[in-house]
Structures are given as structure tokens and as C-alpha cells.
């Protein structure tokens, strides 16, 4: 799994963490998070029913919540935002195959291990001889960044190591011949590698690692409650039964738990997943049609979210941009300075950083926004800087005589701006403003990092589930195109109908 704990080190000591310490005990819901977009078999969308969440970690949390007499509430978040969201107080705990390494233990509070596993090697079906770590030397090997597998490969040396954010990308490169082998956690290797006819698992399990449930360092009360429930689940064999249904019970787990029983438990979830993948990844046009039709509701919902965020952000950008332009053009010296600094800082820093700062950084100052509001605010504030420059150019394009004529008609300076200057400037920048909205529509994909499921997030989820980046990409691309086409037409109409007939120049 993808590991980005650097941001955690800056945010883990946020005052929000302290506020969270006693919050879960008072709540009837057990809020937990994972990245369920491309996360088989941990937490993922059932390929047979895309709206249904499943996975062995998903089942485990539901069982833990039941033992605590609470209801588990799942919250989707990208991997990069899971731990920052924990310190921000969005949820009480995180499960996502997080390895209990010394570095991770220094950053977060862990439960007792709930799963012990190893690394496995995956190769193409026609390959031989790459079944040990030593044999991987001299070959191109893929893995997930910041994992035990990556550290093992780099420590050994001799291999060309390629690290990935998503395991599905590594498997795609192996299938396409860009990699010679993959080294990954055994559950991922089993569910991605062994069900594909063109891949196979080779060699013996390598090493061992433990997965733990992550908590905010100040949230020991919840950690202890979950630990107690987890202990019961291990002791009475419930964990054994869950893992057996997912075909994930191993000798390592037997040694860890001391449970050497061999109950007759069919791997029902494992069989269900294999059958679902066989039904959705078969050949033939009818299979593709059925799959793509099933995508339509999900893409439609994501398109509505994308449009809502973009439209509200553009309203904010237009209003604030106009105020900034007026401040820079007509304001006092301090006001001009502040507006100028805002425009330059916002335009000079990446939008992604601004999104993360507003969502994860502002809670340190007591400002906590919902993901939707944070997305709207970050996009609106960013585009306001660009709109301000557009409007300032529009104001400069209005002839000086317009202001003089308005004053001569006994208008105040404010009335002249509101009734004469601004309307003319606005007509000038409408085409540009419409084009900016189309750009904002596409840039809204960045809000996926703060738990909003919009079009780009939906594309990642669907394409990684079915290894179908082409057809799914066309569908999502068409959705963006259909959202933007009306505004493209509007821009063209504005360019034709709104003339730039106010000739002349000069500062009014």
C-alpha cells in the first residue's frame, strides 16, 4: 500500500487531535477510514455490485463495532490523506494494510496486530527462474512505494526498482512487459496476481510484517476499546473465520494467534470475487456493454458532484476576483498592496497545496470545513486571483471619458463604478471568464484528495478494478466534455455578441 507519512509529522500534533481524544466515546458511530478505490482485498467496491463496500478489513471493523455496541461508519479517503484526516478529527481510526514499522509507530498509535503476512513474487505466466530475492538481481522489479517490499529490494541492491502509488499500475506494467517481476504483500499478490491467467505467484513467502489499526496518538481511550474487542475476536476464532472466507488464513496467522484449528470454512468471499471478476472481465462485446452500462450511475453521480463544486467555486471566484480587481485599480495604497500580494501568492503556489492546506492545515487554527466546502473554497480562492487580473484588464480597457462623463452627471465615484465602469468591463471579460470556468471544471479533479468522489476519483476506482483504462477513460472523458460543452458554446456566443466597442484608452 502507498505510504505517505511525511505530511503526518507536521499535522499529528494539531490541536484537533487533542479534541478528538474523548470524542469517539461519546459517539454512537465508530468512524473509520480507508482508501477503497483500488484496495483489494482490504476495503474495496464489490465488482458485482459497485455500490457495495466489502473486504476483509471492512468485515473486521464491522465485527469490532458490534463488540463495542456501536455502528461502524466508513469514510473514503485517498491514502495520502488518511493519516492527516485522522489528526484532523474526521474519523477515529484507519485500516488500510498499514505496516507496523518503527517509523510508523513513532508517528501514530497502533492497535495490536490484526494480520501477519509476508511478501510474494509475481511474474508473467511464461516466465521462469525469478522465484527468489537473489534471482531478482539484474531485473526490473515493481513494488509499492514506502513499503517493506521496497526497502527489501533497495537493501539487497542489484535490481532496477520501480515504485508505484497504485498496485494496479504495477500489474499493468508487468502485463505489458515493462517489468520482469513484482514484489508485494501476499494478500495483494493473491487477489491481483493469481486470478489473472497471464500471471502467477512463484517461490516461497518472503519475510513477515504486521498490519495494525492506526489511531491519533492522543486517542488512547478508543485504541484500548478497539484492542479489547480485537482480542475477543482473535480469542473466539472470529478473525480466523473472517480470514478463511477470504482465503487469507495462513501459517503465519496461526503462529501469531495460537489458533491451530482447522474448521471447515469455505472461502466464499474469495470465490465470489473470482467469479465477479470472471463475469466482468470476460471477452465479447456483450460483456463490455454490460460493464459500461453498470458504470453510468456512478459516473452520473460523480459528474453532478464535479458540476456542483465547480459552479459554486466559480461564483466565489467571480465575486472575489472583482473585489480584488477594484482594490488593485481604485483602492488605497495599503489595499492595493494586500490585493497584489494575494494575487501573486495564490498564482505562484500549486492548487493542490492550497487544497491540502485549507482542508488539513486550517483545523490547527480552529477552522474545520467539510470536504465539499473545502473543495469549493480552495478552487474559488485560487481562481479568484486569475479572475482579478482578467477584470483589471477589463477595467483598463474602459475609456477614461466614461468615468468623467459619469461624474459630470452628478454620480458619485461608487455609482460610476457600479453603473458605468464595471458593466462595460464585465462585457469585455465574459468570454475569458467562461473559458476559465471550463478550466476550473477540469481542475476540480484535485479535490479528490480530500475525500470528494468526483469524476477523476471515479475513473481511478473503475479502471483499477477492471484493468480497463481505455474504455473507462473514454466514458469519463466524455462526461467532462458533456459538462463543458454548454460553456464552450456560451463562450462563443459571448465572443460574437459582446463587442469590444468601447474604444480608447487611458486610466480613469
Automatic annotation (TrEMBL):
SMART domains: PBPb (SM00062). Residues 1-21 form the signal peptide. Belongs to the binding-protein-dependent transport system permease family. HisMQ subfamily. Coiled coil: none annotated. This is ABC transporter permease subunit. Gene3D superfamilies: MetI-like, Periplasmic binding protein-like II. It is a multi-pass membrane protein. It holds the Pfam family BPD_transp_1. One of its GO terms (biological process) is amino acid transport. It comes from Gluconobacter aidae. InterPro entries: AA_ABC_transptr_permease_3TM, ArtM/GltK/GlnP/TcyL/YhdX-like, MetI-like, MetI-like_sf, Solute-binding_3/MltF_N. Keywords: Amino-acid transport, Cell membrane, Membrane, Signal, Transmembrane, Transmembrane helix, Transport. One of its GO terms (molecular function) is transmembrane transporter activity. Residues 303-491 form the ABC transmembrane type-1 domain. The chain crosses the membrane at residues 302-325, 337-359, 469-488. Its main location: membrane. One of its GO terms (cellular component) is ATP-binding cassette (ABC) transporter complex. It is found in: Cell inner membrane; Cell membrane. PROSITE patterns: ABC_TM1.
Amino acid at each position: 500500500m502507498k505510504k505517505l507519512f511525511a505530511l503526518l509529522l507536521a499535522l499529528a500534533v494539531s490541536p484537533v487531535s487533542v479534541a478528538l481524544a474523548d470524542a469517539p466515546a461519546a459517539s454512537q458511530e465508530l468512524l473509520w477510514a480507508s482508501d477503497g478505490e483500488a484496495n483489494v482485498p482490504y476495503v474495496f467496491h464489490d465488482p458485482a455490485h459497485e455500490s457495495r463496500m466489502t473486504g476483509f478489513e471492512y468485515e473486521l471493523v464491522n465485527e469490532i463495532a458490534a463488540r463495542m455496541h456501536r455502528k461502524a461508519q466508513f469514510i473514503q479517503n485517498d491514502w495520502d490523506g488518511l493519516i492527516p484526516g485522522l489528526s484532523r478529527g474526521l474519523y477515529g481510526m484507519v485500516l488500510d494494510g498499514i505496516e507496523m514499522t518503527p517509523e510508523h509507530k513513532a508517528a501514530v498509535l497502533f492497535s495490536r496486530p490484526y494480520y501477519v503476512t509476508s511478501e510474494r513474487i509475481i511474474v508473467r505466466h511464461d516466465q521462469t527462474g525469478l522465484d527468489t530475492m537473489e534471482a531478482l538481481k539484474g531485473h526490473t522489479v515493481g513494488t509499492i512505494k514506502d513499503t517493506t517490499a521496497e526497502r527489501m529490494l533497495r537493501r539487497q541492491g542489484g535490481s532496477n526498482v520501480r515504485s508505484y502509488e497504485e498496485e494496479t499500475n504495477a500489474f499493468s506494467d508487468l502485463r505489458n512487459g515493462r517489468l520482469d517481476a513484482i514484489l508485494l504483500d501476499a494478500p495483494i499478490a493473491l487477489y491481483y496476481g493469481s486470478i489473472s491467467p497471464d500471471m502467477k505467484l512463484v517461490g516461497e513467502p518472503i519475510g513477515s510484517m504486521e498490519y495494525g489499526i492506526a489511531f491519533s496518538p492522543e486517542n488512547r481511550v478508543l485504541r484500548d476499546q478497539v484492542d479489547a474487542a480485537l482480542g475477543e475476536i482473535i480469542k473466539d476464532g472470529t478473525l480466523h473465520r473472517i480470514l478463511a472466507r477470504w482465503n487469507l488464513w495462513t501459517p503465519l496467522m496461526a503462529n501469531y494467534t495460537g489458533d491451530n484449528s482447522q474448521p471447515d470454512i469455505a472461502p466464499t468471499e474469495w470465490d465470489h470475487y473470482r467469479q465477479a471478476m470472471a463475469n466482468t472481465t470476460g471477452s465479447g462485446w456483450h460483456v463490455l456493454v454490460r460493464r459500461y452500462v453498470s458504470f453510468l450511475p456512478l459516473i452520473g453521480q460523480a459528474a453532478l458532484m464535479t458540476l456542483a463544486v465547480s459552479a459554486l467555486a466559480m461564483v466565489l471566484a467571480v465575486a472575489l476576483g472583482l473585489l480584488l480587481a477594484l482594490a488593485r485599480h481604485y483602492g488605497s495604497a495599503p489595499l492595493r498592496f494586500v490585493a497584489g500580494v494575494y494575487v501573486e501568492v495564490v498564482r505562484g503556489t500549486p492548487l493542490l497545496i492550497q487544497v491540502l492546506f485549507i482542508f488539513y492545515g486550517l483545523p490547527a487554527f480552529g477552522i474545520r470545513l467539510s470536504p465539499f466546502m473545502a473543495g469549493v473554497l480552495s478552487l474559488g480562492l485560487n481562481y479568484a486571483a486569475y479572475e482579478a487580473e482578467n477584470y483589471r484588464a477589463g477595467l483598463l480597457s474602459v475609456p477614461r471619458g466614461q468615468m468623467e462623463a459619469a461624474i459630470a452627471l452628478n454620480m458619485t465615484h461608487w455609482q460610476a463604478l457600479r453603473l458605468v465602469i464595471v458593466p462595460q468591463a464585465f462585457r469585455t471579460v465574459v468570454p475569458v471568464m467562461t473559458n476559465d470556468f471550463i478550466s476550473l471544471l477540469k481542475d476540480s479533479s484535485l479535490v479528490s484528495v480530500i475525500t470528494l468522489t468526483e469524476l477523476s476519483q471515479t475513473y481511478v476506482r473503475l479502471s483499477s478494478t477492471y484493468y480497463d483504462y481505455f474504455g473507462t477513460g473514454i466514458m469519463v472523458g466524455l462526461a467532462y466534455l458533456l459538462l463543458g460543452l454548454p460553456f464552450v458554446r456560451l463562450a462563443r456566443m459571448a465572443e460574437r455578441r459582446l463587442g469590444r466597442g468601447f474604444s480608447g484608452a487611458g486610466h480613469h
